[in-house]
Amino acid sequence: MDIHSRSQPDRVRVRHLELDLDVRFDRRVLEGSATLHFDRITGEELLLDTRDLEIYSVDNAAGFELGAADRVLGAPLRIRLLPGATWVRIHYATTPHASGLQWLHPPQTAGKRQPFLYTQSQAIHARSWIPLQDTPGVRITFEAAIRVPDGLRAVMGAALSGGRFCMVHPIPSYLISLAAGDLAFRDLGPRSGVYAEPALLDAAAYEFADTEAMITAVERMYGPYRWGRYDLLVLPPSFPFGGMENPCLTFTTPTILAGDKSLVSLVAHELAHSWSGNLVTNAAWSDFWLNEGFTVYVERRVLEALYGPARAQMEAVLGRRELDREMAGLPEADRILHLDLTGRDPDDGCTVAPYEKGALFLRTLEQAVGRERFDAFLRAYFDHFAFRSITTADFLRYLRRELPTDVPVDEWIFRPGIPPGAAEPHSDAFARIEAGWPADTAAWSTQEWLHFLRSQDPPDIPRLDREFHFTDSGNSEILHQWLLMAVQADYAPAYPKVEEFLASVGRRKFLKPIYTELMKTPDGQARARRIYAGARSTYHPIAQATLDAIVGA
Ligand code: BES
Ligand code: ZN
Asked: How many other CB atoms are found less than 10 A from the CB of residue 503?
């Protein structure tokens, strides 16, 4: 049961989708048809999720009716089926403000000459560009014909064969993806490569050079990569997330192109979803921690395999610190792994808890039984549930059977806070940083700089800037951390940079804390409102929704 879908897949269940779409940059719509093939279990009606779609007609059906729109869920589409029919074809178009689409003008791209479009379907935005059963509990295969204007290239998270995109593995709707723009491609390895605008291709290929080694590292631990190719797509800076694990084609923000591979934990993360999330999927959004907690755990194991334990330990300590900092500000109900999202937008459940509390729980299980047994358990888990969508209860049943321990599992999953006996990540390098003002920082990694900044209490902002020139940092994570602290301290020399940063980056994780901090003082409010008035239209609908609530539309 998924409360975020009206589709009742236990009555009629969609199995396969054929998409046929024109990408109309002139009108900012996708237009064409979706043919749905389904199994009939009971009843004469197919129920679909939609949001802001214009439905023109439905072929091979007795009739259809678009219900009233709900703010969170959109409008249900009821299709009356003909006796014995196992498919329908829906002719439709999207609308320009579809929550799952971002249409970019040429100036918002690196090349400045061509427009760009990309989708972001997770959590429940696929319904704003395809009428379907928009629940992670339903898995479908699909094929797609996508037409774009001359000079642009369309890509999808799927295999391309004979001009059509084809996904032969059953996937949940939130993993269906499409992008179109002036895209070039470069191979990274035998089954991996990167798409980016031509101006970014060299930088992207350099940054992601370890991708093939990462794939091999996960395979050694948790079994074969089952999706054929693994490519990356670098999006324009307005992409609201760090990354999105669309199968075969991870979408990433360009803000991880640091020039020194220091932010590739994001690639490890999205790649890890090829096992945790895409292969074994949360059945509903209250089980989101099954996707993200497992993925952060695997991500750190990849970092350890490629870059050594010291690096993985640093990331684990950064994660633990973030968990403590952010969980303190969450309502009790959101400090629980298995979330109650009744009446809420599932995007609201995307807090630090499913990620870092989830990963800490798995780290604690690993510590209880030893790495060898835990890895064998995880590998068997991925095999056992491969290409299935599971609930927290399914996981618990499997865990109790296959890996009984003394870890207070129910407390981890159903109660707020961190239970006693939790693993305690430790980093020697970070302990040295905590010991006092540094003497030699020449060999510091990005992670050390981040920990250094976050450990200043209270920070001497002018001295930090004088000695280390953070306002000029070219690393987006360091710059973001610094600008946030500068705003907290009302450090005037940083404001031009704050403004530039907020106007040029659309990554929600960066925007939200800085705007929130600005809104705490009258001067800051005026500044935030002025910057937001200029920048809002360049942000993704998802980021706009978050920031409207903070800054005011
Ligand atoms: N699947 C998530 C992104 C997501 C979550 C989109 C919920 C919509 C709703 C992705 O794998 C992710 O976790 N991205 C993180 C980066 C990661 C390294 C923690 C992000 O975008 O910040
Ligand atoms: Zn993730």
From this structure: 13
Cα distances (Å, whole numbers) of residue 190 to 213, 231, 460: 11, 11, 49
Distance between Cα 472 and ligand 1 center (Å)? 27
Structure tokens at 220: 């050694």
Instruction: Please indicate whether residue 506, judged by its CB atom, sits closer than 6 Å to ligand 1.
Output: no
* Tally of CA atoms within 13 A in the half-sphere of 474 that contains its CB: 6
Q: From ligand 2's centre to the CA of 398, what distance in Å?
A: 23
Length of the chain: 553
SS3 per-residue string spanning 32-54: EEEEEEEEECCCCEEEEEECCCE
**Mean pLDDT confidence for 319-331:** 97
With cut-offs at 50, 70 and 90, classify the pLDDT of residue 1. confident
Examine residue 123 and say whether the peptide bond preceding it is cis (omega within 30 degrees of 0).
Answer: yes
Half-sphere exposure of 501 (CA within 13 A, CB side): 32
CA angle 97, 98, 101 (to 5 degrees): 105
Whole-number Å distance, alpha carbon 142 to ligand 1 midpoint, is 24
Does the beta carbon of 321 lie inside 6 Å of ligand 1? Answer: no
| Active site positions, annotated | 270, 355
Give the model confidence (pLDDT) of 184-202 as tens digits. Answer: 999 999 999 999 999 999 9
Measured from the alpha carbon of residue 512, the closest ligand is: 1
Residue 508 near ligand 1, beta carbon < 6 Å: no
298 lines ligand 1 (CB under 6 A): no
Nearest CA among 270, 274, 282, 206 for reference residue 243: 270
The protein residue whose alpha carbon is closest to atom 14 in ligand 1 is 243
Residue 124 contacts by C-beta under 8 Å, 6 or more apart in sequence? Answer: 4, 5, 49, 51, 72, 73, 74, 134, 174, 285, 345, 346, 347
Cα pseudo-dihedral 215, 116, 277, 318, rounded to 10: 70
Q: Are 313 and 432 in contact (CB under 8 A)?
A: no
Of 328, 336, 322, residue with least CA distance to 416: 336
| Mean pLDDT score across all residues of the chain | 98
230-234 and 249-252 strand pairing:
parallel
Q: How far apart are CA 242 and CA 256, in angstroms?
A: 8
Q: Please report the atom of ligand 1 found closest to the CA of residue 299.
A: 18
DSSP E strand stretches across 148-246:
153-156, 159-161, 164-172, 178-181, 184-189, 192-196, 230-234, 243-244
From 171, 139, 144, 257, select the one nearest 209 (Cα to Cα).
257
